[in-house]
Write a structure and sequence with these properties.
Helix content: 40-55%
Strand order of the largest sheet: 6-7-8-3-9-10
Distance between the termini: 30 Å
Largest sheet: 6 strands, mixed
Amino acid sequence: MKIILEARDVSYHYPGDREAIKGISFHVKKGEKVALVGPNGAGKSTLLQMFNGMIRPGKGTILFDTEPIRYDASSLRQLRKRVGYVMQNADRQIIAPTVYQDVAFGPANLGYDENAIREAVALALRQVGMAGFERRPPHHLSGGEKKKVAIAGVLAMDPDILVFDEPTSGLDPSGSEELMELLDELNHEGKTIFISTHDVELAYPWADRVILLLDGKILEENVPAVAFGDPELVLKAHLSVPILLELSQELGRRGFAQPEQKPRSVLDMIHVIENLLHGTCCHATPGAIHVYNMDTGDIASVLALIRDRPDLCVGAMGTRAKMCAAKESISLSFTYGVIDKCILRSLRGQDSLILTTNAMVGRVGTRVDAYCTESGTIIRVIPVATGGGTGSPA
């Protein structure tokens, strides 16, 4: 994959203060999900602000799309169109008296005409599930809604990479899950995502790659299982080993064979445990996973299926799918980690239904196929046919 962002021997020293960043080098590939993980004071926010030119390195170079960042006003304007930065505190980023005006601020500064601004704002608000909030004053919104407005303001400029400083800060568990689902959706639509966090349980299952940062230096940079796999290194970083990885390590210490690919979800751990039990499973015949693409517009089909099959657990993937479910008063059992939770239900011999969108529908088959190939289990994925009924197994 093409390298889209790179740091070469970057350092930064705040005036009259300690050196915050100390000779850091790394790169980010287009389409990656990267988590910068470290304790408070490690230098995470300082480093992130270098990515779109908010802070200029005292030493070294930041490159975007293979070119060194230039710090004149015109170059920074173009850079900030392509590198979207979402602050930890949404109140610091939202500046306009209405949601529409705030989201429109970026496109207006880039010289979009009035029609283009309206289109950009409408699309961005739909992407984050905030359509209909255009006239609302931001101070009337919840913390999670403010975060979505801040993201919409960045999305309205159609950036290549999205940078989030502690994206779930201040959100409750449900809001955190919804936000991480949105980041997955944006990544699946082609955005490169870079986040900072101190939450190892968030970073471990989500990221393609993890950078451990302590006192302005990189301790480790690798896939999550390796980056978090050395307990001594993780302790040095003032963090903890993710619980699933710690459980896998403990089973290994007790003499139980562990797979080379470490478990990153409850589903992965269940597969490990079943292998230790010689493939024992509660049900010989797995349940089916029905999948409905909400963007087809024929909601009658899925409503009929839900009415005829009250035993189905229903999950929704993607912002538009969740909005449509709410509009149609469809009760959702799963809103995050939907595919794995439906696979777990299938392994108990129970059927489920996933509501999703054009952008996300392919992920269902890909994830289920990968699990079936690894486990030897056969799980049917059945598309709900428009016009009523269900299609044949896929």
